[in-house]
Target: Delta-1-pyrroline-5-carboxylate synthase
Amino acid sequence: IRCWSNIPFITMPLSRAHGKPFAHRSELKHAKRIVVKLGSAVVTRGDECGLALGRLASIVEQVSMLQNQGREMMIVTSGAVAFGKQRLRHEILLSQSVRQALHSGQSQLKDMAIPVLEARACAAAGQSGLMALYEAMFTQYSICAAQILVTNLDFHDEQKRRNLNGTLHELLRMNIVPIINTNDAVVPPPEPNSDLQGVNVISVKDNDSLAARLAVEMKTDLLIVLSDVEGLFDSPPGSDDAKLIDIFYPGDQQSVTFGTKSRVGMGGMEAKVKAALWALQGGTSVVIANGTHPKISGHVITDIVEGKKVGTFFSEVKPAGPTVEQQAEMARAGGRTLAALQPEQRAEIIYRLADLLTDQREEILLANKKDLEEAENKGRLALPLLKRLSLSTSKLNSLAIGLRQIAASSQDSVGRVIRRTRIAKDLDLEQVTVPIGVLLVIFESRPDCLPQVSALAIASGNGLLLKGGKEAARSNQILHHLTQEALSIHGVRDAVQLVNTREEVEDLCRLDKLIDLIIPRGSSQLVRNIQKAAKGIPVMGHSEGICHVYVDMDASVEKVTRIIRDSKCEYPAACNALETLLIHRDLLRTPLFDQIIDMLRVEQVKIHAGPKFASYLTFSPSEVKSLRTEYGDLECCIEVVDSVKEAVEHIHKYGSSHTDVIITENEQTAEFFLQHVDSACVFWNASTRFSDGYRFGLGAEVGISTSRIHARGPVGIEGLLTTKWLLRGDNHVVSDFSEHGSMKYLHESLPLPQRNAS
Model:
C-alpha cells in the first residue's frame, strides 16, 4: 500500500525494462506507464460546441481505475477550443441581446449573427474551464490532476525539455495524473511535414504528434490513441471493401488508403499512423481505437490494457502464420470449394481421415501422452477433465468407426431437394440444403472432438475454425495435420483451420462478419461465457447438462440399478450423465430403494439430499446447495416426488432441457412423461448416456443443443445445414400475375427426386 495525501491505493507489481515495444496484445496488461490521447472528436459534442460530458466522465473513470492499480497514467487531451467556442458563443449572444434590447426596446434574437470565432481565442477561453472539469471529475476518485501546456518550441529547447521531463516524472511519482495539451492560444501555424524521419525529430503540430513525442520522451510502455473510428482500415472507413486492420506492422503503409480527417481536430488518420509508427520506433506500443462508440467507450481503455482485441495494435513482430481473420477467410473459401465437390469426394476425404486415425495411432497417442504428463505435472486439470483429455486405442478405433458412419450417411446431405413447387407454368421453385458457412468450434480438454467435428464439417460442406485448449495443444496439432492431409486429396486443405494464435475466446466471438455459427464444446462455464461474449453470431449448444432419471412406483427392479449405474457411473464427466435422481415417494424404505443406495455406495457416488428427501431421514447425507447443479463427477442429488406429474414439474423447474429419463413398466405413465417433458432428449427405460450423436447413428455430433431453433439434441450433419431457394423461370415477371395479368399462380407440390439409396 502506498499513500499520497493520506489517500491509500493499491499498487501492482508492474515493471519492465523500456526499450522494445510489446510484441503481442496479451502483453499489454504489463504496461506500467500509459499515455491516453483523446482526439477532438472524442472530447467534443457532435455540434463541435461544448464537451461530450458523459463520454469524458467514462474516460476519467477508466483512467482512475488504472491509476489506482498502480499504473502511471497521463492524458493528452483536446477540447479547449470546443469548450472555449461554447463559452464565447454564449457571451456574444448575451452581449448582443443586451445591446439589441437597449437599442430597440425588445429582444429580437432571431436576427442576430454570430461572427466566426478565431481558434486561438477559443482556446484561451476554454483551457481553464476544461481543466476545472477534469479536476472535478478526478476528485470523485480521490485522484489529483495537473495541467501542462506545451508548444513545439518546448521540445526544441534542451533546457525546457529537461524541465518538462522532470515535472512529469515528479507528478507521476506523487500519483498525480498529468493532463497535457498543446497551448493552442499561442501555437504557431503548422510547419511543413518535414519531420517523422527519426526518433529524435518530430514536430508537435497536433495532439497526435504531441502524444507520440511525450510517450517516447517519458519512455512510456503504451500509447492509446482514441478517435471516432474503430481503428485503422485498409481503405477509408465506410467504403464498401474497408476492413479493420487488427495488427499493423511498419512497412504496411503501402497497403492502406487514407481518407479525409475527422470532423474536428488538426490531424487525420494518416497523421495518427505516422505518429504511432514514430512512437513504436521509440519503444512504445500503440493502439488506435474508437473512443466515441456508446457500446464500447465505457470500457475501451481498460479492454485495451487487458489485451482484448480492440482497435488496431501496432507491432514490430509479424506472426509466423496467418491471422485468425485470414484463417476465417481461408476457411470460407475452402468451405465453398468443399461444398462444390461431388458427395463421393467429400466421403472419400472422411474415409481417408478415418484410416489415418488408425494408421497414425502411435504418433497420436505419443502426442497425447505428452499433453497428459504436462497437465498432471502442472496440476492444471481436475480429474474429470483429465479423463476427457486422454486418448486411447479404443477411443481412436471408435472415432474411426464413427467417421465411416458419417461418410456413408453424407452422400446426399448437401444439395438435397426437400421441397418442389410449381409456382406457375414453366416457373418451378426448389428448396435445397446448403452449408451454413463458417463454423467456429471451441472445445476444452477433448482432442477427440477435433476429428469428429472436422468430419461433420466436411460432410456438410462447411468451412471450419477450431480453437482447442492449451492443455491439448500437441494432440490437436497432430489431429489437425491429419485432417488437412485427408483434405489435400481433393485440394481443399484450407477448409479446416486450427487457431494457434493468442486469440482470446471473447475476441473470436466478435468476428461476426467472418463466422456464421459458434459451437462450444466444454464446461457449462465455457458455454455461458461464449453465449455472453458472442455479438451477432448464433451459438449452438447447452450451458448445462442437468439430466434427471425418474424412478416411478411401477419401475422394474431389474432395470433400475442397471440404468442408474450406467447413467451416473459409466462416464460421470459427460454432459449426458445423470445428475439428479427423482424417486417416487412410495419407493422409500423399500428393498428397491435400498438396492439403489447400496449400488451408489459401491460405486463410490457421493449423495446429496434434496429438501424433501432430507425431511424423510433422521440422519441424511449433506443437503444439496442447489437443485440446479451439474456435478460432472461421482456425485448426484436424490429428491423425492409424489407423482409423475410432480417429476415433470421438477424437471422443468430445475433441469436444463438436455436429457431426462423415466424408468417404469406402466406404459401410460411413460407416455405422459415422454409427451410432457420439454427437453431435447426424453427416454423411457434407457440410460441418459444414449443421448449422443454416435449412438443415435449420426456418426458423431458437434454437440448437444438445448436450443429450440434450428437444431435440438445431438447435432449431426443435418444440424449444420440450412437451405436456399432456387427459382427457374422463362421470362416471368410479377406484373403478369396481377388482377388483369395473363398468368395465374398454381402452387402445385411436385414429387421430390429419389434420394441416393447408398
